[in-house]
Amino acid sequence: MKTKVILSDWAFDCYVEEGRFDMLVENDFEAMDDIKRVEKLVMIAIWCIQEDPSLRPIMSEVSQMQERVIDTVPPNPYSDSIPAMLASQPEGTTTGTLGFGLSAGFENESKGKRQVVDLENGSEVIYIPRFLAWDESWKLLEYLNKHIPWTRPQIHVFGRSCIQPRDTCYVANEGLPELRYSGYQPPVYSWDDYPPLKQILAAVHDALPGSSFNSLLLNRYNNGTDYVAWHSDDEKLYGPTPEIASVSFGCEREFLLRKRSTKSPKVQVQVQSYRSAEESPSKRLKKSNQSDQHSFMLKHGSLLVMKGYTQRDWVHSVPKRARADAVRINLTFRRVFQT
Ligand SMILES: O=C(O)CCC(=O)C(=O)O
Ligand SMILES: [Fe+2]
């Protein structure tokens, strides 16, 4: 028996549920050859046919999106309803669900596709593009954007003081040794005040048996001018082989990993990298051997895990990206060792 489907619903399912754009253009070899463009056009189309006309883009936004290559946030069907749902929550609630079905519908797709990249010599990265369900991830983005007490601190890099080029917040268990980076000691917030963070943590623990994270550094990149320069999270309080689990929401941004040069000290790597953060990805790739540099376009709802000696032997960054014009929130879960 033939089943009838609504074309737009099928396209939406292919995009959101499956992440399979190729299914839409089967046998169209020209389209298959340019799958990124297919992805872009599908995103634009879905954005344009939302039920609420006020959420649809205007023509100038559509043409701007078409001109850009990839930094586009998929349409958020919940943008209208979330604030109302959150508003119905009693202020100061610290336990229980938040009323948008997070605990029940919190879908952990950790059994789904995971990519393991062996960085050799005991370093490894695991990437799960669709770790959290797409719609739950939107609700989380809205929640975090609104409720986290974001600050943009003054930090010190190479003896110079500057404003950190992204917003930040730190959440940790009570009684841990204090975190200090770039001359800045962030205030410590409690997990209890942000129940969705505990749920994300539980999903991460589920996906990574044996892990037990007790602290979280949150970053918010408001647009493409916000970034994180080359660094490694090699603070002593994380021990010699820290496992760092990074969950991303919102605008896709490029996450780069580069092998530390064995000859040059850490400083030299960083000086070079400030320059490379301004260069196009193609130029950056030409500079180094493929296996010495890896790039991940971190998707909305994705999980990336750095393991083993990655912090000792590699540096990472999220470079500026002129064309990224929407907010991205990233959570990095870490384990602080008690001394
Ligand atoms: O935003 C990201 O993906 C990475 C953030 C990061 O490297 C950090 O907070 O140490
Ligand atoms: Fe980092």
UniProtKB/TrEMBL annotation:
Q: Keywords on this record?
A: Dioxygenase, Oxidoreductase
Q: Name one GO molecular function term.
A: ferrous iron binding
* A matching Pfam family: 2OG-FeII_Oxy_2
Please report the stretch or stretches of sequence annotated as the Fe2OG dioxygenase domain: 212-337
Q: Does the keyword Magnesium apply?
A: no
What PROSITE patterns does the record tag this protein with? FE2OG_OXY
Sites binding 2-oxoglutarate sit at N219, Y221, H231, H316, R328, T332, R334
Q: Which family does it belong to?
A: Belongs to the alkB family.
What this protein is called in its record is Alpha-ketoglutarate-dependent dioxygenase alkb
